[in-house]
Specification:
Length: about 180
């Protein structure tokens, strides 16, 4: 019986080269388009959060059936951006309780603010509340987190001009 031969010199060199390349790539910083900013770091602070009935109290986008009645309320307040940069696509979270201490929203996410410049700004969001949930509402633990860089977002495909395959901003659906 002949002994099994080990790897050839060229195979060993290839494996060592591959290992060295992988180690060098692992040390490179990964490209980051946007950095998430959260209120825990006191970079974004929501204050003076209040609510009022919308100018048109019939909630937009909800079916006005006899089994489901809803009203539109506008949440508003101030946001303090201490990042020194614009913050984009900031999600707003909080708890909204009705007069019976029942939650008005199923999730803690209330909505989003598209752009928050550095410093103090005002914000407004609309929420839909079932007519069976009586005011006054209690607003608790409101916070926000967003991105200080460009967020890679795809455009809405429903706004595409399908004859030319072009989005309203000029982007195209065809990869060239």
């Amino acid at each position: 019986m002949a002994a099994k031969a080990g790897p050839t010199r060229s195979q060993v060199v290839r494996k060592i080269s591959l290992a060295a390349w992988c180690a060098s790539v692992a040390r490179l910083p990964l490209p980051v388009e946007a950095k998430r900013v959260q209120t825990r770091s006191d970079k974004l602070e929501l204050a003076d959060v209040t609510y009022e009935l919308c100018a048109d109290p019939v909630a937009a986008g909800t079916p006005g059936t006899s089994s489901y009645k809803a009203q539109c309320y506008e949440l508003q307040g101030k946001v303090y951006n201490r990042t020194g940069k614009d913050v984009y696509n900031a999600d707003v979270f909080g708890t909204v309780l009705d007069a019976n201490d029942d939650p008005v929203l199923r999730s803690g996410r209330v909505g989003s603010i598209q752009n928050i410049p550095p410093g103090e700004s005002k914000w407004t969001l609309q929420i839909t509340v079932a007519a069976s949930q009586p005011p006054p509402f209690r607003l608790q633990r409101f916070r926000a987190s967003g991105f200080t860089g460009t967020v890679n977002r795809q455009e809405n495909p429903y706004e595409t001009d399908f004859e030319t395959n072009v989005f309203p901003s000029g982007g195209t659906t065809i990869k060239r």
